[in-house]
Every structure is written in C-alpha cells, then in structure tokens.
Design a protein that fits this description.
It is built from 6 helices and 3 strands, in the order H-H-E-H-H-E-E-H-H. It is an alpha+beta fold. A hairpin with a 2-residue loop joins strand 2 and strand 3. It has one domain: Winged helix-like DNA-binding domain superfamily/Winged helix DNA-binding domain (Arc Repressor Mutant, subunit A, Orthogonal Bundle), CATH 1.10.10.10. It is elongated and about 45 Å long. The chain has a 3-stranded antiparallel β-sheet with strand order 1-3-2.
Length: 113
C-alpha cells in the first residue's frame, strides 16, 4: 500500500485516497483497534477468535465480523489451522499508515535511530 503522503508535499492520488480511506474506516472502530492491539501483544504475535472473545467481552460472531473487516482492509493475515483461524498483523500495512501520517522531518529522525 505505498501511498504518497500529503504531508510529504505531494497530493495523494485518487485511487490511493480511496484505498487509504477504506483502511482508515476499518481502523475507526474501538473494538477493531483493541483487536489489533491484542493480536500484536499476544505471545506469538497471533491470536484466534477464541483468544480474543473474553478480553473484548464480545460474542464470537461479532469478533469474527471485525476480524474479517480488518483482514479485507489488508491489516491482518489469516491462517487456517485445523478448525481454527489465526490472525496476525501485516507489519507493512501498519508501517505504511504510520508513514503516511508522520511528517517528513520526524520520519527522517526516526530512520536515523
């Protein structure tokens, strides 16, 4: 998802803006943000629906719905193992969003570390 940042001084292309808006829409839900956080902080960096139900206090179908939206947005990878599906973050997608929202000067300082 390489997108030119409007913060970099170049206007974002229409197709990129549409794709990014879909990703940001997927992120614009408290339960989905918590899901990303729970998956990222899981011991192996992955979790199944059953791992996520209790911490969120939501039903299995609701969690599955949110995970599907995050997966379709390209923020999560899904791997089926037996009867369970395991989800993990797509680091490049998260980094692309962070890069888009980080002003160029801060990006340069961050890369220098």
């Amino acid at each position: 998802m390489p997108v030119i940042s409007p913060l970099a001084g170049e206007p974002i292309r229409r197709a990129d803006a549409g794709r990014l808006a879909g990703v940001l829409k997927a992120l614009a839900d408290p339960a989905r943000l918590r899901l990303l956080s729970l998956i990222q902080s899981a011991p192996d960096g992955e979790a199944s629906v059953t791992d996520l139900t209790a911490p969120l206090g939501l039903s299995q179908p609701t969690i599955s719905h949110h995970l599907r939206i995050l997966t379709e947005a390209g923020l999560l990878d899904r791997e089926k193992r037996g009867v369970f599906a395991y989800y993990r973050l797509v680091p490049s997608a998260i980094a692309a969003i962070a890069d888009l929202l980080t002003p160029p000067r801060k990006r340069t300082r961050k890369a220098a570390r």
